[in-house]
From TrEMBL:
The lineage of its organism: Bacteria, Pseudomonadati, Pseudomonadota, Alphaproteobacteria, Acetobacterales. PANTHER family: CHROMOSOMAL REPLICATION INITIATOR PROTEIN DNAA, DNAA REGULATORY INACTIVATOR HDA. Signal peptide: none annotated. It holds the Pfam family Hda_lid. Residues 177-222 form the Hda lid domain. This is DnaA regulatory inactivator Hda. Gene3D superfamilies: 1.10.8.60, P-loop containing nucleotide triphosphate hydrolases. InterPro entries: Hda_lid (IPR055199), P-loop_NTPase (IPR027417).
């Protein structure tokens, strides 16, 4: 998309390129999830037909597939997906009511703890299941409401870990493919060797490279990566 600027010499309008941070939406389906030892325990828990008190807390570092797993589970169990950061008090005294199974993302940082407690109480009384996901387990998350804190700390937990090398390589290629980025194998191999061994580093690197390549209308090269990822790239051994 272009905007019209005025040329400082001729006074005529000229077209300049505007880059918008449009993030491509990736379908978080079961067939697109990358299985590996780092998420095998979480997948086993999610496959269970029952959880203690009908609740499960999934935690792990950013970029390790928690939201993807939560989305897949919600689709398979016809669950309503909510972002806990958006919970808020209602001036009218009302609150969110959900019928059926529930999936709560960012559960370790709810915008309103009373809303979250009411949702858990409703689900328990209705016999519905609740899957929650956050970066930290309940024991390391801070909740002001004692009832909510005790309820969550009594919840069964499972975790995703940082990806192992094989999964990291597949994840990098998948992230590039999701954004329809064509990158030479020599560059992807180099990125894999020099990026930190975390899922979040891969996600952040691909997002930055995609934006830079879009703005500059140039392919992703090692030189571009060196320029855009100075804080992420590890030095040559």
């Amino acid at each position: 998309m272009t905007k019209r600027d005025v040329d400082g010499v001729s006074g005529r309008p000229v077209a300049t390129q505007m880059a918008f941070p449009l993030r491509r939406v990736t379908a978080m389906t079961s067939d697109r999830f990358i299985n590996g030892p780092s998420n095998v325990a979480a997948r086993a828990w999610l496959a269970r037909s029952q959880w203690p008190d009908g609740r499960l807390w999934l935690w792990g570092p950013s970029g390790t597939g928690k939201t993807h797993l939560l989305t897949v589970w919600a689709h398979e169990h016809d669950a309503t997906v909510l972002d806990a950061r958006l919970f808020s008090k209602s001036s009218a005294g009302g609150r969110i009511r959900v019928q059926g199974n529930l999936a709560i993302d960012n559960a370790d940082s709810p915008g309103d703890e009373a809303t979250m407690l009411h949702l858990l109480n409703d689900a328990f009384s209705q016999g519905d299941r609740v899957l929650m996901a956050g970066r930290l387990p309940p024991s390391r998350s801070h909740f002001m409401l004692p009832d909510l804190a005790s309820r969550l700390r009594a919840t069964a937990t499972t975790a995703t870990g940082e990806p192992e090398d094989d999964l990291r390589a597949t994840l990098l290629l998948s992230l590039l493919a999701d954004r329809q980025l064509v990158v030479s194998q020599s560059v992807t191999d180099w990125l894999w060797r020099h990026l930190p061994r975390t899922g979040n580093a891969l996600v952040s690197a691909v997002e930055r490279l995609d934006e830079a390549a879009l703005v500059r209308k140039q392919p992703i090269t090692r030189a571009l990566a060196l320029e855009m990822l100075p804080d992420l790239l590890m030095p040559e051994e």
